Amino acid sequence: MDLVSGGRTLPGCGIGWSPEEYQAAGLDFGRRGARMDELLDALDALSIEDPAQHKGVHLPAALHHSPLKPARKPRPPFCLGALSERGLATVARHGDGRLPLCVVPSFVGIDGLIAQRLPLDRLGRDVGRAPEEIDTVLRVSIDAGTGVTQVADTIRLVHECIGIDPCMVDPMYAVKTVDETIDHARDGLGLIAEG
Questions:
Q1: Among 76, 99, 120, which residue terminates a domain?
Q2: Are residues 53 and 83 in the same domain?
Q3: Which of 6, 46, 105, 116 has the fewest CB atoms found within 10 Å of its own CB?
């Protein structure tokens, strides 16, 4: 995706919170943190090395030629969703950014967003990383029936209060079809263009 987008894609992922999803996949919910740590190590190896391999318990990859590399060097930045101390420690060790969540309008906790950043900064310093080396990209989910203007106003408020600039808007609960998703994005981009 990074290559196809010309380096404009910002990958983000998390370990998940639903035991049922892990059960459906036949995976141990209690090992999800270890799987994420290994995934990030594997992505580093596969993005940078050629030939590449990863010797892991959960995600082994045999030595193979891997000439298709990301546009950004050495690899695209990875943003990780995390709330727990262990999850934030993973962000501090491996992540280029964190994906905190707000839900417009039902959950926009500016004080919580500030409070969540403090342990990440401490954990980053513990592993030799300055706080500014770990970005914050706000994930904005939208409650059903919420207008684009309210979403834009909320993003603007969060930026003015705590300086979070990049954000990812997730309209999954606000729209029902692909066409509605496109319309929602078009309306949002129109508001951005207006300033």
A1: 76
A2: no
A3: 6
